[in-house]
Each structure stands twice: as C-alpha cells, then as structure tokens.
C-alpha cells in the first residue's frame, strides 16, 4: 500500500505535528486573553496534544476536529485518559460541523495547507464569532520553483496549493479577515525541550513503507529549506 504523509503521521500518532510544536503553540497563545468562557476549535487536531493542553491550562471550552479517524481515535484516547471534557469529532474543516459564530478562537496548526484554502478559510470565518481570531501556522513558498520541484512537493504532501505569503494574505482578506499579522517561524532557532517534544501513539501495524515516507519528508525539508518556510498568521 502506498501511504500518504498524513497517513504516516496518523499511524505513528505524532502529537505536536506542526512547526515549533507545543512550545510555539504556548508562545502564541500566551499573548491572548483566554479564560473559562473562551470557546476554541483546534481544527485538524491530530492526536490532540494542543487541545489537551488548552483545556487543562485554561479550562476553556475546547472542540477538536480532524478528518482522519485514526487521529480522532487517538485524540479521544488521550482526552479520556486525562479525563478532559473535549468535544471531539471526525469531520472536514472545509465543511465544519458547527453553527455560525460558535468560536472565539480557531487554531490551525499546519492544517489549512493540506486543504483547499479557498473552501476552508471562509468556513473558518463563518464559525468564528464577530471578534473571533484565527491562528494559523502554515507552509509558505519562499521563492519560485521549477515545475518539477513544485510537483514533487505538492504530490508528496498532497497539497491542493502551495502559497506564497502574499497569496495567503489575499486568501485571508478575501474571506473577510481585516487584520492579519504575520510572523516568520524559523525551525531550529529555538531548541525544543523535553517537556515540549512531539509524542507518539503508535498503531499496531507499522510497516517499512511508513519509514520511507518519513525519510522522504526529511529529505524534502532538507533539500528545500530555502524554498519552503513557515508563517504564523494571526487573523481577525
Ligand atoms: C500536519 S498534521 C497536524 C496535526 C495537529 N494540528 C498537530 O499539530 O499535531 C495535519 C492534520 O490535519 C488533518 N487534516 C487534513 N485535512 C483536513 C481536513 N480537510 N479537515 C480536517 N482535518 C484535516 C490531518 O488529518 C492531520 O491530523
């Protein structure tokens, strides 16, 4: 079977599968006013490392959504074992199963890049309250690539698009976000400590094909470290 990169993350059960991991998440959210009344959606929650932290740390109302049922099972196990009341659903962020104006905050930690941006961002805007905020940590194309390089990357990650920073800004503005702050995130600048390392929840079957996918991911990251970058978008 030919696995995708996201299958691989799900079967290894990687928690904190975004640039900067939980350490960066904490840093971004430490600047925000979050309390027990805050309603927050972790869109593309993966195995739920961030959602669990947010519920434990702030006592806020957390919803967790992912379209991969293996991820959601693992997130659910994490929340149950910690006794955390987190509403957890299998669903698509391109068509999120929530009413309008439900959330104060939506987080997308390396998720929108894997979806059709033009479908996802307006839907995130729809489920946000009037003054709600979106925090997104996403991949950007830093400089033009040959067609061959570009297809290698988008085919491997199954990215429906690979946006420059400017293209991301246009997509956020088109969906009605008026204020967008952008910060460049440079992997490796801050050393990740043990407390914030990615965690793993392995599925029973892990075959060699999955290790090959992880290797190819590392190779792409290394080979394209000047071409692929990451941004933190704070949108309201
Ligand atoms: C790189 S992982 C990041 C997971 C998590 N945010 C984290 O930081 O650990 C991307 C996640 O987005 C989920 N995802 C991709 N497309 C999605 C969609 N259309 N709707 C919901 N989740 C999606 C994947 O299943 C995966 O869990």
Would you kindly provide a written description of the structure presented here, covering whatever features stand out?
It is built from eight helices and seven strands; from the N terminus they run H-H-E-H-E-H-E-E-H-E-H-H-E-H-E. The protein has about 240 residues and is of the alpha/beta class. It has a single domain (about 5-235), classed as Vaccinia Virus protein VP39 (Rossmann fold, 3-Layer(aba) Sandwich), CATH 3.40.50.150. A seven-stranded mixed β-sheet has the order 3-2-1-4-5-7-6. Strand 4 (about 105-110), helix 5 and strand 5 form a beta-alpha-beta unit. The N and C termini lie far apart (about 40 Å). The model has no long low-confidence stretch (mean pLDDT about 95). S-adenosylmethionine (SAM) binds near residues 15, 67, 92, 93 and 94. S-adenosylmethionine (SAM) binds near residues 92 and 110.
Count of distinct strands = 7
What is the radius of gyration computed over CA atoms, rounded to a whole number of angstroms? 17 Å
Extract low-pLDDT stretches: none
Q: Under the CATH scheme, which class?
A: Alpha Beta
Mean pLDDT, nearest integer? 95
Number of helical elements: 8
Distance between the termini: 42 Å
Described by strand count, sense and barrel closure, the largest sheet is:
7 strands, mixed
Helix and strand layout, with pairings?
Blueprint: H1 5-12, H2 21-30, E1 39-43, H3 49-58, E2 61-66, H4 69-82, E3 87-90, E4 103-109, H5 117-127, E5 128-141, H6 147-157, H7 165-174, E6 180-185, H8 208-223, E7 228-235
Helix pairs in contact: 1-8
List keywords for this structure.
Rossmann fold; 21% strand; alpha/beta; seven-stranded mixed beta sheet; 8 helices; 236 residues; 38% helix; binds S-adenosylmethionine; globular
